[in-house]
């Protein structure tokens, strides 16, 4: 475990995790609701880790939030998470009144041009405001971790937030498929500054990629030989709308395909594997439906097949994973551990620096937490 000088380690009285959020969309809505749902420890059902190091969910304090939609910018966070075009399911009400308003972030490539042809109720409507200085806001609010929930394909915007974190000495948790933690140059820059970075592309608790990976690994371990597979996903949230613009999907498809290919001994040729979003269905809202098919050759050269349909609420399905990644990033900050957190990323992200099986990832993150606590 690489240890470098960073911000002073937490000593004595435990500090709060001062969290900043980039992108107040459906994922942010699920996370903010989750902080209240598990508040006080009255239930732990659905949590991956009740405690990481000294940190429980109650120790996360939101201090800053950034977005570009005119229906969110300038509004209190507890109102913004329910503003259009958000459609995440409400699972706790009322939501705590956080003492902050959403600030205007940089637009850059955060909005797909194609999405602007759809009704305003379904798409992002850019506010006519100038972006605040993100690094200055992070310093002013004394944020220690920034979690990135920007739309798929927002490469320039994600990199702008990563730059702001480097400038303001804030750790970065990148939940979208823009390669930061898994990019050697970016990881080296965070390591040089003594800042943890976790990424890229958040996994769901039990989602399409997790199920696909598990089935492909099962076949491999049983001596079967996968010959072709597809994973088609449809949904009705803003991310699926943005992904209608196919050029924005380049890194998303790489991320999801590598996550599945890594689980089999002989990778499939590109013509025999297709993984990625398929279409936008508005009435599904935040519900995601996955259609999965795998064909394989078994004993005697006999071909077999499997077809599966999975239905999940998309944003809550990844919120708990993000909360774990945030707490790990803070623990690393406390201990002066900088650079890409490989064990944390392989557990929580689809495109970490190193791909491992999900069972191995669980063992690795448990071991990492134990080691970090002893540093």
Structure notes:
The protein has helices at about 25-35, 75-80, 135-140, 155-170, 185-190, 210-220, 240, 250-260, 315-335, 340-350, 360-375; strands at about 15-20, 60-65, 105, 145-150, 170-175, 195-200, 225-235, 275-280, 285-295, 305-315, 340. It is an alpha/beta fold and about 375 residues long. The protein has two domains: about 15-205 and about 315-375, Rossmann fold; about 210-315, Dihydrodipicolinate Reductase, domain 2 (2-Layer Sandwich). Strands 3-2-1-4-5-6-11 form a seven-stranded parallel sheet, with helices on both faces. Strands 8-7-9-10 form a four-stranded mixed sheet. Strand 2, helix 2 (about 75-80) and strand 3 (about 105) form a beta-alpha-beta unit. The model is unreliable at about 1-10 (pLDDT under 50).
């Amino acid at each position: 475990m690489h240890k470098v000088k960073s911000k002073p380690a937490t000593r004595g009285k435990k500090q709060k995790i001062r969290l900043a959020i980039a992108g107040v969309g459906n994922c942010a809505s699920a996370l903010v609701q989750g902080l209240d749902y598990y508040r006080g420890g009255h239930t732990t059902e659905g949590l991956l880790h009740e405690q990481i190091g000294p940190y429980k969910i109650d120790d996360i304090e939101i201090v800053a939030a950034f977005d570009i939609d005119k229906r969110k910018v300038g509004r209190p966070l507890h109102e913004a998470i329910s503003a259009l075009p958000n459609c995440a399911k409400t699972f706790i009400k009322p939501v705590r009144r956080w003492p902050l308003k959403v600030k205007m972030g940089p637009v850059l490539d955060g909005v797909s041009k194609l999405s602007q042809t759809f009704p305003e109720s379904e798409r992002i409507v850019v506010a006519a405001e100038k972006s605040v200085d993100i690094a200055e806001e992070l310093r002013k609010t004394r944020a220690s971790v920034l979690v990135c929930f920007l739309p798929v394909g927002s490469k320039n915007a994600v990199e702008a937030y990563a730059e702001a974190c480097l400038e303001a000495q804030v750790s970065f948790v990148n939940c979208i498929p823009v390669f930061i933690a898994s990019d050697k140059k970016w990881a080296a820059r965070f390591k040089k500054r003594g800042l943890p970075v976790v990424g890229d592309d958040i996994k769901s608790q039990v989602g399409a990629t997790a199920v696909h990976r598990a089935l492909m690994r099962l076949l491999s371990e049983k001596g079967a030989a996968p010959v072709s597979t597809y994973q088609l996903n449809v949904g009705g949230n803003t991310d699926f709308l943005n992904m209608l613009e196919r050029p924005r999907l380049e890194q998303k498809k790489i991320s999801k395909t590598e996550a599945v290919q890594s689980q089999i001994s002989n990778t499939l040729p590109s013509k025999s594997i297709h993984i990625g979003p398929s279409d936008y269905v508005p009435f599904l809202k935040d519900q995601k439906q996955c259609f999965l098919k795998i064909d394989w050759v078994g004993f005697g050269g006999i071909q077999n097949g499997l077809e599966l349909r999975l239905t999940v609420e998309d944003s809550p399905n990844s919120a708990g994973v993000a909360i774990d990644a945030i707490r790990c990033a803070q623990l690393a900050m406390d201990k002066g551990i900088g650079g890409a957190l490989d064990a944390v990323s392989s557990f929580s992200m689809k495109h970490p620096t190193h791909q491992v099986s999900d069972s191995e990832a669980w063992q690795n993150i448990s071991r990492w937490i134990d080691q970090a606590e002893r540093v």
